[in-house]
Design brief:
This protein is an alpha/beta fold. It folds into 3 domains: 7-224, L-fuculose-1-phosphate Aldolase, CATH 3.40.225; 239-400, Class II aldolase/adducin N-terminal domain (L-fuculose-1-phosphate Aldolase, 3-Layer(aba) Sandwich), CATH 3.40.225; 412-586 and 621-648, 3-Layer(aba) Sandwich (Rossmann fold), CATH 3.40.50. 42% of the residues lie in helices and 14% in strands. It contains 24 helices and 18 strands. A 7-stranded mixed beta sheet has the order 3-2-1-4-7-6-5. A 7-stranded parallel beta sheet has the order 14-13-12-15-16-17-18, sandwiched between helices. A 4-stranded mixed beta sheet has the order 8-11-10-9, sandwiched between helices. The model has no long low-confidence stretch (mean pLDDT 94).
């Protein structure tokens, strides 16, 4: 463990206990070897004055929903110590009553709910208390000789607590254990199969002790084994199988899921161990991870993917039936991560952020399991206590507070011509609706899209190999493909047929028609495994109302429309919808500069405003209008529509 304390960083917080608490909490949160994504908790006891000027001792404990890496002062729940100590002295306290009394004991009604370990923090007789799920401690204690190993490392310097359900039951057990305890030489407390506590009179003392205690566990493990893990690279990564896996998991979950493949050297090396399936199938490294990862991963190889998710859900249903009570309702049985033997791991989430959280936990899991094996055998908690955590009322309440899903959340969309104009508007509308999006364009500006759930790919769509690679990049990044928006196109220079340059015609056909055929060719194998898959094309009013001098453009768009009709016929049996949008007079693009717009309006003897609204409804059509239509067509509203041609033009008398 690296000690991150910095005197200069800490100097501004001198004399402010809560500020010091924030500082060292963030130090703990910076290290994924200690805590991940909301794990762990910290506290400080401070004597404060009430509104009436009376002194009382307050426990400021990490609030529910806060992450140690980013926690601020407002992330701590202030709870009266006298209330907490009275609760600790009770023989029994239900979860519901505990939550109510903790809330009632707070001095700030606007603060978040305190950690479920608030009572435990209160009974420990130290100003500062830190709790983490350090990998080394989990490797040390998920072992048949866990308690003996702890004694070997620390002697009598730490208290050892057998695994007990978190919350009041754990707090009460510790409260009983420490009655009359001399803490003069006690530096921390190890909870078997769970984590570690450190404590001290100052923020630095508690933090230093945490780093020192975990470092000693790491040194013990290093002495017992190499501390290094095998590495490799994916043996036979089949992207169609990845898309199929994502489809099956999404079906089990009940809605679209992102599938994040990890074929890094560490992940591939773990997946290529001869015992990978056996050790990964024993259980999680800490019960805290169960809600994110479920008890077990899905384990499969290239030859047995078919039916593997169905088998997993059956095993989960059996697990639920064996431990459930009549008042419980089974959660969805979908796996949250998979071990793809020979290749790596796959993490699932309703969006890229959630999948990333699972991926981080999976990395910790595989590393900690391998550390445990080096200590003589990985031996995690059995099914019953893990079920108790997964279906614990307090944890279920957190899940119920999750924000509502957006319409396209978990979906994956590929949009061409996405650097500007209609393509960019489609990308934005789909992203706003919750989809993970990949924008493809010849313009290098597309690479600005580099967020978790947005990817920009430079691609010349007339290059078949580059097109195939762009589609594969999409599947590698998000696990599959559900929505194709085929928008890329050019408006070639106008010319009457008699004077039409053959190169003009060839270029329009290559970009406005042939590239769309090739793109669909590469997308269909993945759309086949998509969630309510659809392909949406951007056509033109010119298909139904062409103008003189626009043969190369109008004919290509007419051919594109015919492609949509044929594709709708071919792909309907596979439940892939194919539709086309015909926009007109969309002037808020880079093509239409103010000067070009003014010249065009002048040719018709109209003002710019009149020219923009020269449709039956006298309304301006913008890129965002087309984008919203495309996002709507990608959703359930058009779930039973295929082969349709939808105008977005404000009404055109020639078309009508």
């Amino acid at each position: 463990m690296k000690n991150l304390w910095n005197d200069q960083e800490a100097a501004p917080f001198e004399g402010d206990l809560l500020a010091q608490r924030v500082y060292t909490s963030q130090l703990l949160g910076r290290d994924p070897e200690l805590v991940l994504h909301g794990g762990g908790n910290t506290s400080v006891k401070i004597t404060e004055k009430t509104f009436f000027g009376e002194e009382e001792e307050i426990l400021h404990v990490k609030g529910s929903g806060w992450d140690l890496a980013t926690i601020a002062q407002e992330g701590f729940a202030p709870i009266r110590m006298d209330v907490l100590m009275k609760l600790a002295a009770l023989e029994f306290l239900s979860d519901a009553d505990m939550v109510t009394q903790l809330r009632a004991g707070m001095t700030d009604p606007a603060a978040p709910n305190g950690s479920i370990e608030a009572i435990l923090h209160a009974v420990l007789p130290f100003t500062f208390v830190d709790h983490t799920h350090a990998n080394a401690i989990l490797a040390l204690t998920n072992n048949a000789r866990g308690e003996a190993r702890v004694k070997e490392v620390y002697g009598d310097r730490v208290l050892v607590v057998p695994y007990i359900m978190p919350g009041f039951i754990l707090a009460r057990k510790v409260y009983e254990m420490i009655q009359g305890q001399d803490f003069a030489n006690i530096e921390g407390m190890v909870l078997l199969n769970h984590g570690i506590f450190s404590f001290g009179a100052t923020a630095r003392e508690s933090y230093d002790r945490m780093i020192q205690l975990v470092s000693e566990a790491e040194e013990h493990i290093q002495a017992a084994g190499s501390g290094s893990f095998p590495t490799g690279e994916p043996a036979s990564l089949d992207l169609v199988k990845l898309a199929q896996l994502r489809h099956d998991v999404s079906e089990a979950k009940g809605h679209a899921m992102i599938a994040r493949f990890d074929g890094s050297p560490g992940a591939a090396g773990f997946a290529q161990r001869s015992d990978a399936g056996e050790i990964a199938g024993r259980g999680p490294v800490t019960p805290d991870h169960v809600l994110r990862t479920k008890r077990l991963p899905l384990i499969f190889d290239n030859d047995d993917l078919e039916g593997s998710v169905e088998s997993y859900t059956g095993i989960y249903a059996n697990y639920f039936q064996r431990f459930s009570t009549p008042d419980l309702q089974m959660l969805d049985p979908a796996p949250r991560w998979a071990l793809w033997l020979g290749n790596g791991t796959v993490s699932f989430g309703s969006n890229m952020k959630n999948a990333g959280v699972v991926a981080d936990i999976v990395k910790t899991t595989r590393d900690t399991i391998q550390l445990g094996e080096q200590l003589g055998g990985w031996s995690p908690l059995t099914e019953a206590p893990l079920f108790e955590i997964e279906y614990w009322d307090l944890e279920q309440a957190k899940l119920k507070k999750a924000p509502a899903r957006r319409p396209l959340e978990g979906k994956v969309a590929l949009i061409t011509g996405a650097a500007a104009g209609i393509g960019r508007a489609c990308l934005q509308a789909l992203h706003d609706a919750g989809a993970a999006v990949v924008g493809v364009d010849l313009n290098p500006e597309i690479e600005e899209l580099q967020d978790d759930d947005r990817l920009g790919v430079i691609c010349n769509l007339t290059d078949d190999e580059a097109t195939r690679a762009a589609v594969e990049d999409t599947v590698k990044r998000f696990g599959g493909l559900d929505i194709l928006v085929s928008n890329a196109g050019i408006f070639t220079a106008g010319a009457y047929v008699e004077k039409l340059d053959p190169a003009n015609w060839d270029k329009s056909m290559a970009v406005n028609l042939t590239s769309h055929v090739r793109l669909l060719h590469h997308c269909v194998p993945y759309l086949r495994h998509g969630i309510d898959p659809t392909a949406i094309y951007i056509g033109s009013r010119n298909v139904h109302a062409p103008g003189a001098g626009a043969a190369s453009y109008s004919c290509a768009k007419a051919g594109l429309t015919q492609l949509v009709r044929v594709a709708a016929l071919e792909l309907a049996p596979e439940n892939i919808r194919v539709n086309i949008v015909h926009p007109d007079a969309v002037f808020d693009t880079k093509l239409w500069t103010p000067e070009v717009l003014a010249r065009s309006a002048e040719r018709y003897g109209l003002t710019v405003d009149e020219y923009k609204k020269r449709n039956l409804m006298k309304t301006e059509i913008k890129s965002a209008d087309v984008g919203r239509m495309v996002a709507t067509m990608a959703g359930t509203t058009f779930g039973k529509t295929t082969g349709a041609q939808i105008p977005v033009d404000g009404g055109n008398d020639r078309v009508i």
